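Handout, section B. The chain below has 229 residues.
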Amino acid sequence: MSVGFDLISDLNVTNIAEFNWEGKPTSLYCLVPGNISSDLNIVNKVLLHLSKCYQGVFYIDGKLENPSLMDRDHIIQRFTESVSTIPNLIYLHNNVVVVDGIAIIGINGWSDYPSSTDDDTFQLKSYRYDDLIYLERTTQKLQLHPDVKKIIVMSNSVPSLELYFGEIPNIDVHEIGLHTVLEADTEQKITHWVFGSHNKIVDTIKDNINYINNPKFDSAPYYAKRITL
């Protein structure tokens, strides 16, 4: 039996009155890899609206939701609390969900963030390292999990430089690519990697993994991209 997910990313909502997703869902579930808005009240309202359109909304915060690195703990607490007030919403920070044998792991990834000071640079590297370790260890744990047949990785950041296809990204080219965690996927359960933060549509297969994004940014009209597993 196949399972469908709608991929929605980089909504960049500035006016909640202009966002309406009614009639647009093509699946029971929705994947949202961040960059909804820099206004957390708008983020909550968008997630609440999506929760009424889908049976399950799986979300990880992105660059827009973290304008200040110093407020990271507050952001995590804010979205963790939202889970208890918004039905059908799963915040994937340090949290794995399994749907019909498909595990979904979500991370930010912390690429393409402005770092005006050495402290910012250090903090970004620390956050990125933490996400890499979490993703690697979680992938390892799921390898022999009897109820997990496939894995979707969802990151706000682009997982590797290759996926920019020759463009010059605004990141430190010496950063370790998120895709290096694939060495932990010994049973080859990772079939899809969805991501945000790149304004060009990507849908490509590399080493038997389908890398997909579906950025809105300024696109109009904008529709979800259905992914079927």
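Note. The CA atoms of residues 116 and 221 lie 35 Å apart. Compare this with the example in section A.
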